[in-house]
Request: fold
Amino acid sequence: MYPEKLHILLADDDPDDRLFFKDAFDAIKIDHSLTMFEDGLDLMAYLHDTNELPHIVFLDLNMPGKSGMECLKEIRSNSALRDLSVAIYSTSASNANIEDTFIAGANVYIKKPKDFSALKKIISDVVHINWQYVTDGLNRENFMLSY
Amino acid sequence: MSAQGYRINETTFFKIAFGLSVCLLIIIAIVSFKQLRDVNQAQRTIIKSRDRQIELQKLSSAIKDAERMQRGFLITKKQEYFSGYTKSRKVIDHSLLCLKKLSNRRSLKPQQILSLETLVKKRLDAMDETLQIYNNTQTSATELKDYIDAGSAKMQLVDSSIDKIIQEESRALRQYEAFHKAKNRALPYMTGFLVVFTLLVFIVSFYKINKDSGRLRDMNDDLILVNKSFQYAEEISQMGHWKRSLADMVISPSDNMYRLFGHEPGAFEYNEKSILAFVHPDDRETLQQALDLIKAGKIPPEMNYRIIRPDGQVRYFRSVSKLIAINDEKLVLGATRDITPEVEINLSLKEKNNELQAAVEELASFNHIASHDLQEPLRKIQMFISRIAVEEADALSGSGKEYFERVSASALRMEQLIDDLLLYSETNKSEQVFEQTDLNLIMNEVQIELAAEIDEKQAIVQHGHLPVMEAVPFQMRQLFINLVGNALKYSKPDVAPHITISCEMVKGKDISDKLSAVRDYYKFTVSDNGIGFYQEFADKIFVLFQRLHKKEQYSGTGIGLAICRKIAENHRGMITAESTPNNGARFFIYLPK
Amino acid sequence: MNLFVKYNLETTCRMILQEQLDKFGLNYTITGMGCVKFHSNIPMDKYQSLTKELNRYGIDIIDNQKAILVQKIKEAILSMLQYSDNMPVMKISSFLSERLGESYRTLSQVFSEVCHISIESFIIIHKIELVKQLMVGENLSLTEISYRLHYSSVAHLSNQFKKITGLTPTTFQKIVKHKRTLSPVIN
Reply:
């Protein structure tokens, strides 16, 4: 069912958030490899270079250099990267922001929680539901989750 | 009496008075003239009559003289008597001649004179005969006496004829006198009456003219006063006016127009060219277009332009004009106002407004950013706390765990405060988009938003039919979320919350003087069956950060209701509350229709 | 110019499967979704190549008993959801255990083990997915959808929708509409 290894990417400029994310991911029982970037430029460079596309990309919105939104738009306009599952992982939760990111093509919007268990659950949910879309052939266009 | 009517009446009156006076004067003149003529005539008649009488007397005495001379001659035969006789005969002839001249139809008719003449002739002839006879010596004394007696008889005839004529003359004169007297008896009275009447007319006219002239003088004075006031008014209000005849295009400005341009009245020739010279170069074209419109007989809209005074000052002018017709003459009447002070005030107001706006935006953005920036580290604190509490639970002592719990609680409180502050700042935003908002839909969203708590407490939330009104949607949503959320929060512990929202229309003046007396308002009532509160706190609860309960009992930041009040105020309405402990609470929100 | 397409995955996958199997000249019958019956054994090398080819299309060969069971469960659930009109309203547990001949406890255990989510979650996720499809693809109103999918009320549907996706149905609709107007960025 699940691939041998889940390949996850995260771009977030905040070291604490990266730590939380990593620890939360480690709690998931699925085998995975997590690659983290400090800014959007590095992330995009990696994506353009790699052969092995990730299963999900987590993007923080407020990053220096290239913002999460810019990365998202670039991903969605790139034919090779277009079908990636993209999750926005951000501090802000204004409705306008959320809607805009979905309209720009994000699949998941996660407002950074303040509770670690919540984070763990969210990540677990995201991964599993994402997998439903991948395996059970659900319409990617309708894949939108908001936490 | 209107000026026009007054004028007409006046003219007619004066015409009548004048006509009347002239007529009367003419009448008087005619009458006087006639009277004079009559007097002259009478005088002449009398003189003539007197002359006749004198002449007759002369004739009579001349004849008597002739007789005397004849007798004398007869007696004395002295030559001097005979020359006297001859002389008298000449006088007689002369008198007869004069009498003939003096004859007139009335008294001394020519026939009478002729017959008299004949008689006189006969006498004289008789005298002559007598003399002849006397000279003839053969004549006897008796023959002489016969002749003398015949002569005497003839003389008597003459005398009686003359007397008769004289008498007739007198009689005719007297008749004439009497007739004249009768005729002239009325005349003085009539004249007197006419004179009096004329005098009256003159007096009345004089009185009326005086009065009218007095009135005219007053009107004139008023006019002068009005004119002066008008001129002063123009000066004070920095206005000028001008008129332009469409026939010859000449512009006639008021005195103050010159002053507006920074000159003394009449300092320059006021025409299109000289005016445009004052106008700011950028505005010349538009003004020229406006002036062309005027010349074409069309009225341009309000003209706003700048002029530069000789001293370099820039002034803002506003001109308006109107086409009028006076006595078939087409005129353009215009007024120009120096609006520089207003423009400057306007500009400075706009500037201040912009500054204010910028300040408000800066504050709002500061608020926003500060809140966001505060949220970051707070979240991390909470994250780490949650991890420590879970992962390091074994390493912590009992009190250690407790401390972390309290830290966690404080962090949560801080989070709520920041969230609410953010909300509060958001309702303060200057740019609020009012649109037609269906409150029924808003209520649905509210119920979805609070779905979890509604479910958990098994609450029943009902609303009657709510209106569609002009409002800011997200604020309305926030308002009802806060109120319904509060109702849910402050429910009785083991009683399922029952919350109803209803709406009715009320008049502003019936509610409070904080509302507009002339407008209608929607009165929304959010009522619940929760724990309620003391009515004396009804105002306090809307104050920022004011809470009625300890935070251990009920969570809350004290901002929620302050936000509600702010939202109500943003919509020009108000919110009040009513409650008694244990009897739930009712919140009334008044929003203008 | 943009084209909006709807996939009928079942047909698509079957066609691909057929094409691939035909390419390898295999003798087979496709019985239901996700099950191919071979009339004779396949040589290992062909099997490897076949696996590789099918993998290209994202089609995996399941050779795991549990996985097979899970697949069957999914199949059952999906077909039930598809043809919900004809379905008698029955409890899911009885329906599945009846259809697959196993106790519901076993089924849910295996399912959770393999998929890491419960059957209930799976059902809800796919039900919501169906809601999305009906909303976006067929433009049905929420009332119609809630009726068709046996929700007790529109509110119930909205609540579940929000719970699962984090968005209200209306917000979701709005987003999809906006996405469609921004042409090249289609997910």
